[in-house]
Predict the 3D structure of the following.
Amino acid sequence: MHVVYSSANYHVVEFPGQGFELINKMTSVGTYLHGDAGLRFRDYLAEVIADDASVESVDDFLGNFDVLMHQPTIYH
């Protein structure tokens, strides 16, 4: 498990070789991207960070995935 990004609004964790977990901290829901979708997400996230690594820019990008986040977040 590797924390890729964390802000007041979002948390992104990579499970190497498996996929990415995206969590919206404000609504306490998340989603998991793996396979081709996970690979594309990784590439797009890297592009966003390379272009503008500001919290606002990355959070705006991650906001595009809010529609996919339906799984309640459970902390353990």
